[in-house]
Amino acid sequence: MSNLQWPELIIFTVLFLLVTVLGFMAARWQRGGGLDHLDEWGLGGRKFGSWVTWFLLGGDLYTAYTFVAVPALVFSAGALGLYALPYTIVVYPIVLLPALRMWSVSRVRGYVTPADFVRGRFGSPILALLIAITGIVATMPYIALQLVGLEAVLRTMGINGSGIVGHLPLLIAFIILAVYTYQSGLRAPALIAFVKDILIYIVILVAIIYLPSKLGGWSHIFDTAAAKLGTKSPATGKPAGSILLNANNQLQYATLALGSALALFLYPHSLTSVLASRGRSVIKKNMVALPAYSLVLGLLALLGYVAITAGVKPLTNAATGKPDGNTIVPVLFDNQFSSWFAGIAFAAIGIGALVPAAIMSIAAANLWTRNIYKEYIRKNATPQEEAKQAKLASLVVKLGAVAVIILIDPQFSIDLQLIGGVLILQTLPAVALALYTRWFHRWGLIAGWVVGIGWGLIMLYGIPNPANGKLHFGGSALSLGNLSIFGWHPFSGSLVQIYVGFVALIANLVVAAIVTVIARQMKVFNGTDDTNPADYLADENDKNLRPIGAAH
Prior knowledge:
This protein is an all-alpha fold.
């Protein structure tokens, strides 16, 4: 730590302390009743308005890892990294109507999690348990990845090392996060999101105007990036990437963008922010306004090309001895800006890690409390016991995420998040499609989930990464030539690639449909539906809405 960047570190610390104060103050912000009810602690009383929800969803979906990983992917692979742009644009029209229906039925029935909805819709505790476990497993590495983004900033400021001592600043930051989240619940990240998003907008707009003018303009930047990405890699003998898609990765780009769009609001933390809204009109306004974040994301992604032109070299990870691509953006800011502005940029990324990490830990805690603890351990738990259990579970989740970073190679957490995206996509039939139809039999959905999860993991396991020598879990792109269906290779010899999660989802739906037809022919009991058609159409003016916090 002898190379500490003190001006940057001081500005980072001051802004971090500011959001810490806001986190503790949030306990009294928009507070209706006490925080000893899961609706109050885990959903902010279900009364966030348009502005709060916009910042909360923005802080939830556009994370610290997004702000370091997307430019890093563009830096290393080129145009393929821009898949994040179309997916964050198309997701909102895709999700608009399902989000409204999920909000309505959850408000009427008092549902807190997507697994609550599945439990009520199909009367199947087994299916609800599978959805809850999938949500928790998929969320855990996502939280760890926020730490990856935060550590990239800390390393750039000179805080580097391995073991617990090297990770001490990170550990302190997340202990503080854990304390004010425990006290304030969802209100803490909702309030902090205002600061985070304002800082992000300022930093990106300044960077996207100043850096191109300093480095010779966009034409020069794209020319330099094209030349650098087109150089053959010593490890693979092929170009690292291209600023244009080619015939082999166009299908991968399209399916990855669509699959990611379908998966985004299946994550429990995304639905938590939706359910915290006070009405359907709030959700409608936000689905219209949230693409503004995609504009920022697109500008941010271009910083990957800017970093190539600027000759940025990623820092070496002291624990692994390998270059850390996640440091591309922090190093770019450190090299090209004054210390005070770099400090603001680092604070924006660091605070950007705290907001989604808090929401994700709350969402995972809600799943544990409502769909495992109350369903299988303490069926008669009171609202106060539920809230206490969720608070404790959120602490465990955060500590688990920190342990992932301290005890294993951070790159492995990235691989876990890759797996998590494929896993969460397999909940689409039971969660999203069930909002519109109950045609699928619950045993069909369970069978589809098993096949989708199992085949998805098998395909991911078989993908190598020649660049780093990994033989398994080396990426999410599967060559169609390697696609095997019971030993049959329908696209033998093809070099075209496709997103694994998309293939697994197709298998999931096919199996679910087949088992559903068989079960219906055999007249197998399909459980009791706790919902009714009116539940899906209720709005904030509906007199039939139950009071906030009504138990189902």
